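EI: anyone free to look at a 201-residue chain?
SC: sure, send it
EI:
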Amino acid sequence: MKELKEIIVEYIPEKAIDIVVDLISTNNVQLNICRNRKTKLGDYRPPQNGYLYHRISINYNLNAYEFLVTLIHEFAHLFVWNKHKNNVEPHGKEWKTTYYSLLMQFIEQNIFPEDIKMAILKIEIAPENAKLEMGRAMQKYTQNTQNTLFVEEIPLNARFQTTDGRTFQKIEKLRKRYKCICLNDKRKYLFHPLTKVVSFN
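SC: here you go
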């Protein structure tokens, strides 16, 4: 078990290590720390199709609190699968209840700083707003080496670049997303408010 601790110590807050090691070891989990994937931060796969372990993968480039919250997210999928298999919605009420319960276990151990903690405590009351607040709070603990901004910070009608080099213009705020036009292909896209962009002018 010492080897597992040595692996994860650089990815999660120190105070969470023993809890996480216990979760991994008691639930027969194979944890994979992966390259950056643009479409997801983490992934859960059940022990099916010849696999003997629950498999959880997390992107390597997350800060400690992002990594931990993503790991808790995937463990919630594991516990829901153990109880319900594929008979419930992936992010339905069973998953939401389990996810919040797991987060509260870490809250009780004072793992999170106050700003992230306060956002988590709002999840049951206003989940969408709490998710955005959590995202903003967790980014404070990321070392910004590229002067990145969130799409929500870009002024309307301003231009910005995404990490793949495309240039966009922000044109309209919708209820949950921002409508932007790609100046490379003239197509319109919807952006999550916390999508990171490299620059704008």
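EI: Strands lie at 29-34, 42-45, 54-59, 149-150, 159-161, 167-173, 178-182, 188-191, 196-197, 199-200.
SC: 👍
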